[in-house]
Amino acid sequence: MSTDSSTHNLHHSFNRWLLRRWRFLATAIVVCLGVIFYSVMALSQQPVHIAMLMTALDVAQEQHIIEAFEAQNPDIKVDVIEGPNATNLVEDLYTSSFLLGSSPYDAVIMDVVWLPKFAAAGWLVDLTDRIPESELKDFIPETVEGSRYQGRLYRMPYRTDSGLLYYREDLLQAAGAQPPETFEDLINISKQIQQSQGADWGYVWQGRQYEGLAAMFVEVLEGAGGFWVNPQTLEVGLDRPETQKAIQFLRTTLDQGISPPGVTTYQEEEARRLFQSGQAVFMRNWPYALPLANADDSVIKGKVGFKPMVHAPGQSSAGALGGWGIGIAKSSPHPEEALRFAQYYASEEAQRNLVLKNGYLPTRRSLYTDPQVVEKYPYFPRMQAVAESAALRPPIAQYAQASDILQRYLSAALTGRTDPEQAMRDAAKETRNLLQRYSAR
Questions:
Q1: Residue 31: pLDDT above 50?
Q2: Beta-strand pair 280-285/164-168
Q3: Model's pTM, two decimal places?
């Protein structure tokens, strides 16, 4: 074979090897690109995770709402962190996470009294321009007002609450009495029924030194024509005559044996259990107590009425506004997804399901006359008037500190440790100092 022929064959073999090599490399590149493409596609189809913190009880009772949202929004997964059942501890956990600067929470479930502090600190997304006013028309105005700070909207309200006066319809009927309107009415009817041995006690309420004491007192204070703090002017009203009138009503129930001596240690459940056992004529509590009082195992089933709180002559009833809403953490990397979640939670569909399953008061007016709701809870149309008469605790950034001041001095006045007038003068002075200290910053 000639040298030229050998060289030609060698070149031909090399070219075929090179071609096979290039085909292999090209195939490998295509495969790699395909793997990368499909990996990116798969990753893009993974749901976005948003996190929120709730009490363990709320997680158990509201999981069905979260599951319904995820079913309708498969691109979002809600990671729920169970917190303690004490709401003040949940507030502390949120506060600590925000102060660290890298909060793990996207959606922020808030009690109405937390909002001013969270908003003033700059921890929440301003939703004012994200939620059109038309979307808020169905909401009870007080629940929307409780979701604002300095005129700006920071949360979507989905549950509301308002203090109620519960009474034993059977005992009032036997005594020939109408449900009370004034402080004096409640005292007189209580005495009459106690003297006839219809009940051991006339009136149970929340007197322990905690946030429930402040909520209860706001109702009596407003009913006496007084006020705690004016959020517009920051004027403090705790040392006015109306405040003493409110304290005198509560002291009278203690001094005259209408309320049990231990009422100054009661929270909601202690009051409810005593009332539900049939031992009291009247009770101040939240709406959650009504389904329990009418449960099959309740000795007062079918014997319970409710109405707005009593008041001084010439004044109006007030119930402390409670309730929950969802805001968006400013530090969230997924604010759009968190907003979709908040809007769903406050939607008519979600709130209807919350009402039907748990008996919560909705923030949407239409649900108080919704046929499904009324069929299960015939009393719901009457609850709307109660919810719409709710009174806000002062929506100020320093609310937690102001509430602590009121609780300490009010507890001292109710338990007789301090003269009521002196206690409220001291409370007013300390509250003014608090507000001046912060306004000067």
A1: no
A2: antiparallel
A3: 0.82
